[in-house]
Amino acid sequence: xxxxxxxxxxxxxxxxxxxxxxxxxxxxxxxxxxxxxxxxxxxxxxxxxxxxxxxxxxxxxxxxxxxxxxxxxxxxxxxxxxxxxxxxxxxxxxxxxxxxxxxxxxxxxxxxxxxxxxxxxxxxxxxxxxxxxxxxxxxxxxxxxxxxxxxxxxxxxxxxxxxxxxxxxxxxxxxxxxxxxxxxxxxxxxxxxxxxxxxxxxxxxxxxxxxxxxxxxxxxxxxxxxxxxxx
Length: 231
Known about the structure:
The protein is mostly helical. It folds into two domains: 1-38, no CATH class; 41-229, Up-down Bundle (Fumarate Reductase Cytochrome B subunit). The chain has ten helices and no strands. The protein has helices spanning 2-13, 17-30, 43-69, 88-116, 118-123, 128-139, 153-177, 183-188, 192-219, 222-229. The chain starts with a helix and ends with a helix.
């Protein structure tokens, strides 16, 4: 009996931290309380997430002020209360300054995601079947968020779309800002005026994602804690 107890003790001492976390979770679940000590969102994800959130808000607000100076759609303008810069010159200063923060942070986020393999683990694979299943479950109010360490198909699609959208936002912004220096980019956008439309549409997609994201955080507040403390 003593030999058996000794072997169990030695096995426990040699377990990896991840194994101990799994055992702890299983034991906690058996008692009706799920407690996780494993880090789900690493530090670099949390830092880039909050920097991106700040940059997007400042970029959108200053961008709306720039838009108001020459509206693409005359019937649509944005109230001064939700714009940044006070006038065209001030808004451009804010927009260009924050632009570098957004681009640098986006590149760091993408680079670390691919280098760590997190991009593949979190966002792939994504199939039509899984997406359809999760959309149906969401419409029926049966889409659960019990395991925050895994993304459902709708989340995967949303994050893939927003990553592509930010890339398009940056490229269309360059076509508008440096139209002469990037003639090929301008041509791919369909000309300067079309580049402005593409930039506006990409901004609208990002704002929509931001709004839905905030609503989902309100519905699943644990996700906010996860992005603050990592678990």
